[in-house]
Design goal:
single chain, about 425 residues, alpha/beta, Rossmann fold, 3 domains, binds uridine-5'-diphosphate-xylopyranose
């Protein structure tokens, strides 16, 4: 099947490469000339394990190509995916759909023959109908259907998530469109992936409801962690204890510094706004947004408390800056709240992150960026583990002790066993463990 993907950001590029790998003939389009030039030279603009090899293989096989010419790509395609950004609109938190609508207009002008236009970007309920109206207005003769097909990729595991998803959700209003979508995802029938076919609004809402539920789960366990600290309980055991109940499930119950990233913060806020404007407020999600925002700021207070109540004139060695491991994405990372708060309290921050330092430098200008974990801790008054990258999972604590002025270790991801680290002579602080 011939597929065009509009937008070579995270979702577009991963989807394009994976569809090509399924055997489809894929062309990816972007307005950003430098991005397309880079892709044509074989350079991948984002950090995602395995993506460079997958793109290279499929380009080599002739199934994946890149272009700046949207019209040309759309004209030949049977399915066109809109995978442009839907950032939070400044000021009100609604999803900004201007890129989606602009792409729809351009697609409309280029449609030739029956085309299924698919929204892959996360878009609020009703966007599909708006896209349909735009295409009809721009090109009244166009033969097309608009389908919703949300993506559930996690950064760092995106290829695996695309190729072995828990489910595929397709929101379509007619049989022709449903058949095209089934054909596109046919390779997944082999591993019996459930393909859930719904109407368009339902599919659009599934994406937001899914992300909001996961964000709620994380926020719930984070609050339980705080309670554990007051009552001498262990949040990891609480999570295991409730997670073994099949109705709850064990995933997304790791207490930490609060969720970040390109989806949860933006999508929870957008859902809150959509619900409010439809007269059906989602009080639980509103609370989740508020609690999570506050939590990120509170993490700096924890670090300050671990340092005896003041970090004035002190140096903090920070391990990890990205919102989670295996990504270079800094969007809404807890570090963006923690570092400025520590600096405001008079600390100097030395930091190391395996992939995020390039982007971090744009936002956190006063940080001393280091060459490795031990360099970041050299001469620091306390160590803080913020992102659970693998390189931070087996640290040499004797070496750390010799580098730190004070053996203070704040583990915001509960990577280490408190007993073991304390035995090594550290003043060890973690999340929700007594
Ligand atoms: C998420 C969704 O998982 C994915 O389905 C959707 O398509 C996009 O948003 P992503 O943002 O890549 O993916 O990361 P994810 O692994 O879900 O983590 C999000 C945040 O939650 C991170 O900051 C992570 O550290 C935090 N988290 C996750 C926890 O604090 N505890 C957990 O148990 C799980």
């Amino acid at each position: 099947m011939r597929v065009a993907i509009i937008g070579t950001g995270y979702v577009g590029l991963v989807s394009g490469a994976c569809f090509a790998d399924f055997g489809h003939d894929v062309i990816c389009v972007d307005k950003d000339v430098s991005k397309i030039d880079a892709l044509m030279r074989g350079e991948i603009p984002i950090y995602e394990p395995g993506l460079d090899a997958l793109v290279a293989e499929n380009v080599e096989a002739g199934r994946l190509s890149f272009t700046k010419d949207l019209g040309d790509a759309v004209k030949n395609a049977q399915a066109v995916f809109i995978a442009v950004g839907t950032p939070s609109r400044r000021g009100d938190g609604f999803a900004d759909l201007s890129y989606v609508y602009a792409a729809s207009e351009e697609i409309a002008a280029a449609i030739a023959g029956y085309t299924v236009v698919v929204t892959k970007s996360t878009v609020p309920v009703g966007t599909g109908s708006e896209v349909e109206a735009i295409i009809k207005r721009v090109n009244p003769d166009a033969d097309f259907s608009v389908v919703s097909n949300p993506e559930f990729l996690r950064e760092g595991a995106a290829i695996e998530d695309f190729k072995r998803p828990d489910r595929v959700v397709v929101g379509a209003e007619d049989e022709r469109a449903r058949n095209v979508m089934k054909e596109l995802y046919r390779p997944l029938y082999l591993n019996e992936t459930p393909i859930l076919i719904t109407n368009r609004s339902t599919s659009e809402l599934i994406k937001y409801a899914g992300n909001a539920f996961l964000a709620t789960k994380i926020t719930f366990i984070n609050e339980m962690a705080d309670l554990c600290e007051h009552v001498g309980a262990n949040v990891q055991e609480v999570a295991r204890g409730i997670g073994l109940d099949g109705r709850i499930g064990s995933k997304f119950l790791h207490a930490g510094p609060g969720y970040g990233g390109s989806c949860f913060p933006k999508d929870t806020l957008a859902l809150v706004r959509t619900a409010q404007s439809n007269g059906a407020p989602t009080k639980i999600v509103e609370a989740v947004v508020e609690v999570n925002d506050r939590r990120k700021r509170q993490m700096a207070d924890r670090i300050i408390a671990a340092c005896g109540g003041s970090v004035k004139g002190k140096t903090i060695g920070l391990l990890g800056l990205t919102f989670k491991p295996n990504t270079d994405d800094m969007r809404d990372s807890p570090s963006l709240a923690i570092v400025p708060a520590l600096e405001e309290a008079g600390a100097v921050v030395r930091a190391f992150d395996p992939a995020g330092m390039g982007e971090a430098k744009e936002h956190l200008k006063n940080v001393v960026y280091c060459d490795g974990p031990y360099d970041a801790l050299d001469g620091a008054d306390a160590a803080v583990l913020l992102t659970e990258w693998d390189v931070f999972r087996a640290l040499d604590f004797d070496r750390i002790k010799s580098l730190l002025n004070d053996p203070i270790f704040v583990d915001l991801r509960n990577v280490y066993d408190p007993g073991t680290v304390c035995t090594l002579g550290f003043d060890y602080h973690s999340i929700g463990r007594g």
